[in-house]
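Two proteins, back to back. First:
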Amino acid sequence: MNNKYAKRVMEDVRAKNRDQAEFLQAVEEVLSTLGPVLDANPQYEENAILERLVQPERTIIFRVPWIDDKGIVRVNRGYRVQFNSAIGPYKGGLRFDSSVNLSVLKFLGFEQIFKNSLTTLPMGGGKGGSDFNPKVSPHTPGKRCSDREVMRFCQAFMSELCHHIGPNTDVPAGDMNVGGREIGYLFGQYRKMTNEWSGVLTGKAVSFGGSLIRPEATGYGAVYFAENMLATQHQDFKGKTCVVSGSGNVATYATEKLIRLGAKVVTFSDRSGTLYVKNGFTIDDVKAVIDLKTVRRGELNEFARRVKGAKFFKNANPWQISDTIDCAFPCSRQNELDDKDAAYLLKHGCRLVAEGANMPSTPKAVAAFLKAKILYAPGKASNAGGVATSGLEMSQNSERLSWTAKIVDEKLREIMAAIHDNAYAAAARYGHKGNYVMGANIAGFTKVADAMVDQGIV
């Protein structure tokens, strides 16, 4: 970090947030790349843009009491971090997982500012959630929460959150462990509490205002972004071997799109381990994984027993299994891919990494990719397809329209191409051609910073 202004702000952030490792990592990743644009635009320092940008506009923490199926009162903690609304209402997902804490949500909300800016849609950055995990029963080890328990938790959570959100204020969406079921329960409670129907949540079922292509959007968008990166080198996905982590919406729909574009995808993963098929998954395999994870809510080792040629590696990640790797798509969680994984990928031929998750590569892994000069897309650029389609859902709700899947997919492809082109152009403009980390950070930052300057010291 060679810019004095950025360095000074980073030191202050460290002093005030010493126990928030994820948040510090996210802030440092962004500030370390902004030197060229800060040097060229002194008005940003004059208006204390960085000092304001790294501080959430509002942080809400609340208790969530609910009753489980045994009649026992349980209490979880709920959060909403409303980070920046300079270019539009706060927009960002809700995450339900035992790993959720203020540091994680501040990192995600901070990233969301730039991701939303890159989409070109009028959306600010926010994030929220709870340490409640629907995959873990509070009373029966090894079991999941029942649907009724999830419903009661979601209703209790929304009973407080509804006071802080709205279609023109803050529009949450789903994230880890918050899918269509949870969004439905949350929306129902919001509607009851406020006595209004509005597009306050995205990721809804199509029957009550959801957008087609929303479940697929993040995975599809990551592939569309990667497709644009390959096009700069006159390449495509045909014949390329890809490793994918995760087995949720992002991973499965990225895999589906990759297969349709001619690639071979050889891995899925979950918390229990990695599923590997040397000859690649088929579209029917992808459908089976979607059914396993979203309908039956099972583990990947169940799938391995039913598919010929499949191998399951317990407690392993997918990065060091295949001996041939052209492209990698980390689609699971933050810091899942470290420097040793990066070294293995590079040694075995990987020339493209596109992040489907938020900050899935550690700083050392990112440094290795940049040093090797491979095509590397940071999550704030390549996984913006989900929030972009959420923005399209907001537009449909406002206009009381429902677009066809074809229209939404075309708009998504156009948005991802625009994000790619803006990031590519910004990097080149400041002397870092091909560095999508620099490009995405600068392009996302300047739009928000200029809006903050124009709106005064607020």
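And the second protein:
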Amino acid sequence: MSEVYNWQLGRKMDYPHEEAHPEWQFAFVFNINRCIACQTCTMACKSTWTFSKGQEHMWWNNVESKPYGGYPQNWDSKLLNMLEKENPGKQVWDARNQGKEKPFGEFKGKTIFEAANSSQSIDGPRRALGYLPTDDEWTAPNIHEETATGETMKRGEWSHSAELPEHRVWFFYLQRICNHCTYPGCLAACPRNAIYKRPEDGVVLIDQERCRGYRKCVEACPYKKAMYRPTTRISEKCIACFPRLEGKDALLTPDGAPLETRCMTACVGKIRLQGLIKKNPDGKWADVPDNPLHFLIRDRQVALPLYPQFGTEPNGYYIPPRWVPRPYLVQMFGPGVEKAIEQYSCPDRELLAVLQLFRASQQVIFQYKIEKGPKVAEVEVTLPSGKKKTQEIFNDTVLGFNKIGKEFIRITIEEPTFERPKQHVNSI
């Protein structure tokens, strides 16, 4: 095992390979608060990449209802229980000492790589703690969709739990693709070295010629986004639509600027923002404050990693839902939840402008700029903590620039109103 630094955990951790980092890293932010679970992203991916024989169970993009849904079923609760069994009562965060390279404090528990040191599978030592889902667990990609939970439901007060003006039950939609992790579990576990990260963008791929279908990647991926195809007897996974990242679609980007993935561009609810993060040779994020992902993830910490305690340093980030009990969210996104939700509930001037960039174009946004406009409103907001705050809203214009520095987005805070000329009495 080597020692690598995981900024999401705030410490060094064990990893089977030497530390190495790409020049750019594919990353994305999903805003859970906006998702309507229309599954347009799911079908966009399915119709593009996994429509062939043997891929019927493959949903590289899926949207599942939490807390009961999951694909494969119980993927997260099973691994959380395995980690707790390996390190009883010690899977905890110490959020007291926070800083630039440890924004959430320090995770004191064991990652999937560290827990594997004391755990063996039936065929020998493991490189990462994990399990192989059963065939039944792959059968229903949207099981328990929109199934709610809550304290009142546990007591059987179904009618009372759904009374207006306040629902006392909750659920939320979790959007998932491969996180193209900095320290992938699938890559660590592969005995054939068939899995690699592309040096130009950090996308994690499986070499189809080297893979022999041992399914170690399926077992070790904590998010279960590496999938075995029985017809070819090799594994497959999300490829981040890398031809689009390379700007090879001459129709959409004749200048060769990178495009967002299919699931991103199809999003109806405008919950998705994808980008490329500039990395330093030591793996730290380059200081690029006008990159929208850098702003949301590192500067404001309003977007949080999914299960950072697994230790893979996932490059998928989420703006947590406001209405969900905090202990559940802390388990899922770490101790930065309260800060993230407070900011999102009453965004300041710059954050409100950046939030307009979600799904504003198919091209990847590398830089944003804000042109200030007049104040248009003052709104009193009650934060989740109960405090009241006055939000000042300005009709600013936010501009987005692609990789070659060309402006391709210009959008205002207030949506423009267009009035069509009247043509006749029954005109619509």
